[in-house]
Amino acid sequence: MSTLRNRVQLIGNVGNDPEVKTFEGGKKVANLTIATNESYRNDKGEKVEQTEWHRVVAWGKTAEIIEKYVMKGKEIAIDGKLTHRSYDDKNGEKRYISEVVINEITLLGNK
């Protein structure tokens, strides 16, 4: 059990065109959302589909790949880690964000 670590793997569709920012020195960050879908049958035998949305962030070379090749609707697979952070909004209220920081991305599908 000591070899377990914080790891997330997702395959889904990009929900919006990635937002890419470039910092001084040229380092890039890409922010996007990924939708994953799951279906099951309820007690009545009816098919139920459930969509989960995931906030995703990528840095450096991975952000550059996303900027060039990823757009809304594209199917991607990611491997990363779950992180949590907080910030104060413009009203001074504390906000909390959970997101997946990408270590590796695989472009799937033809879109």
Automatic annotation (TrEMBL):
PROSITE patterns: SSB. One of its GO terms (molecular function) is DNA binding. This is Single-stranded DNA-binding protein. Keywords: DNA-binding. Homotetramer. The lineage of its organism: Bacteria, Pseudomonadati, Bacteroidota, Flavobacteriia, Flavobacteriales. HAMAP family: SSB.
